[in-house]
Amino acid sequence: MDGMSMSALPQWHFSSPQGLANYEAACRHYPAQAIVDLVALRDNMRHLVQVSHEASDAEVMGVVKGDAYGHGLIPTALAALAGGATWLGTAQSREALMLRRAGIGPERCRVLTWMYNGTKAPFEELIENDIDIAVGSIDGIEALAQAARRLGRAARVHVKVDSGFGRNGFTPEGFGPALKRLVELSSQGVLEIVGQWSHLAVADAPDIPQFVDVTEGQIAQFNTFTAMMREAGIAPKIRHLANTAATLSRPEIHFELTRPGIGLYGYEPDPAMGTPSRYHLRPAMTLQAQLGTVKKVEAGHGISYGRTYVTAHETSTAIVPIGYADGIHRSASGFDTPSARHTDKLGGPVRVMTAQGPRIMHVSGRVCMDQFVLDLQGDAESMGVREGDTVELFGPGRGEEFLEPTADDWARAAETISYEIFTCLRTRIPRLYLGAFEVLDEHDRAMLDPSTLL
Ligand SMILES: *Cc1c(COP(=O)(O)O)cnc(C)c1O
Asked: Which residues catalyse the reaction (predicted)?
C-alpha cells in the first residue's frame, strides 16, 4: 500500500483482467460509477418468483420502466429473465420496443407497455413486435383498433381499470361504453382481450388500518370489474394488481401475474416496512465516486453557495465530483452548521475509508451542479484521505461495521423515496455490471456493451 491510501484500491471482484481494464477505463472517463450486481438482481427476482409461485402459482412481470429504475434496461431485463420472470413491463412504449429490438423476443417473454399518447402512439410497431398494450380510454381503444385493422393482426390488450388509484384506467361509471366497444372489437378479431389490471395506492402501508381498508376497497372494485367483463363475455385470462408490496404481503391478490418493481432492485417499497434483508432482498446498485480536491480549511469557513454550512473547527474538506446534473438531489444538501442559521439538517451520507476505518461523512453545504463538498471533520492527512480516493454514496448496506449507506438513507436526506434516488441518476454516470458471466449465457451477454462488464 506504499504511497496509496486506504480507498485507492477497488473492492470489486473482477471476472477477468478485461473486467479490471473496463473498470479502470470507466474511472478515467468519469469520476463516478454506478455498479450494478446482476447476481443480486437475479436473486431478488428468483425470490419474488418463489414467493409468487408458492402462494398462488402466479407468473411474474419484472417491472423495468424508467431505464430499469436507473439500473440499465437491457442488463436488468436479462437478469430478471434469468431469475425466472416470464413477463417484462415498461411504462413508456419506447422502452418496450427497445427490449424487443435488443433481441428479447416473444418466445422468451411477454412485454406489456402502458404509457403512450393514445392518438399518436406507434401502435403498429408495438403489435408487430408482439408487445401487449394497456388500454384505459375509448380514444386509445379506437386508435389501437385502427392500427390492428391496418396490419390485419389482432392487438393483445390489457384493460386498465381505476379501482381507486385515481390515475389511469376506466372508472366504474365510464366502463359500460368501453366494455361495449371491447366486446365488438374482440368478436371481430381486432382486439384480443388478454388481461385486466389495476394499480394499488397504499399497499406499502400494511400496518396502517385506514390504508388497509383502502386496499380492501380497491380489491373489491377490481373484482367487480372482472365480473362485468365475464358477464359481457370477455373474461380476462390474466389479471394483475400486485406491486412489490402486495407481492410480498398479500398473496391473495397475486391473481395470475404479479408486477414487482422495487423488489427486483433490492429495496422494500417503504422503509416503514423494515429493511430489505427482512424480505430477503439485496440492493443491486452501488454508487461510488473518486474524490477531487482535498484540502485544509480554517474554522468559520463558509462552504458552497449561500454559506449554509460554516466549518465549526479547523478541518479538511473533500470534493465529491458529482452534483445535481448527475441526479444527486439538491434537497440532500447539508446545513449542519453550528452557526446562527443552524437548521440541523444532515446532508446525504457518504462512506469514506480512513486510516482509522470507514467513516460516514455528510454533504456539507449545498449540492452544486457538478459537485458537492464533504467536511471530513478532521485532518485529511492524518485520516489518510486523499484526492482520487473512492468513496461510496450508497450500496447494499452490508452490516453494521461496514457502515454503508443505502438509497433509503439518501431518500431520507433528500425527503424522497429510494425509487427517485436511483431513477434520477443520469446516464452520464457509467453503469458497470458485475456477475454477467455468472448470470447470463453467451447469447445474452452479446446483447450488452462489453465495455460495461466487470
Ligand atoms: C411501477 C409500477 C409497478 C411496480 O411497483 P413497485 O412498487 O416498484 O413494485 C407495478 N405496476 C405499475 C403499473 C407500475 O407503474
From this structure: 65, 305
| pLDDT tens string 59-97 | 999 999 999 999 999 999 999 999 999 999 999 999 999
- Rounded to 10 deg, the angle between the 38-56 and 73-82 helix axes is 50
Which residues form the pocket of ligand 1, taking CB atoms under 6 Å from any ligand atom? 63, 65, 91, 199, 243-244, 259-263, 269
Residues 6+ apart with CB under 8 A from 380: 294, 295, 296, 316, 318, 386
Nearest atom within ligand 1 for CA of residue 269:
7
Nine cell digits for residue 154: 389482432
Distance 219 CA to ligand 1 centre (A): 16
The residue whose CB lies within 8 Å of the most ligand 1 atoms, and thus the one to mutate among 51, 63, 253, is: 63
Helical (H) or strand (E) element with 305: none
* Of residues 422, 425, 423, the one with CA closest to residue 409: 422
Say if CB 322 and CB 429 are below 8 A apart.
yes
DSSP 136-169: -SHHHHHHHHHHHHHHTSPEEEEEEB-SSSSSSS
Report pLDDT for 7: 59
Q: Considering the entire predicted model, what is its pTM?
A: 0.94
Residue 153 CA to chain centroid, in angstroms?
A: 34
Q: Which of 169, 139, 133, 175 is nearest to 151 (CA)?
A: 133
CA 267–ligand 1 middle distance (angstroms)? 13
**Complete domains list, the chain, with CATH:** 17-30+284-439 (2.40.37.10), 39-265 (3.20.20.10)
Q: Encode pLDDT of 87-119 as tens digits.
A: 999 999 999 999 999 999 999 999 999 999 888
Helix orientation angle between 73-82 and 93-102, rounded to the nearest 10 degrees: 70
The ligand 1 atom at the shortest distance from the C-alpha of residue 263 is 9
**Length reported for the chain:** 454
In angstroms, rounded to a whole number, what is the distance separating the alpha carbons of residues 213 and 386?
54
Q: Annotated catalytic sites, by residue?
A: 65, 305
The rounded Å distance from CA 385 to ligand 1 centre is: 41
Residue nearest to atom 12 of ligand 1 (CA): 199
H helical segments located in 237-332:
244-249
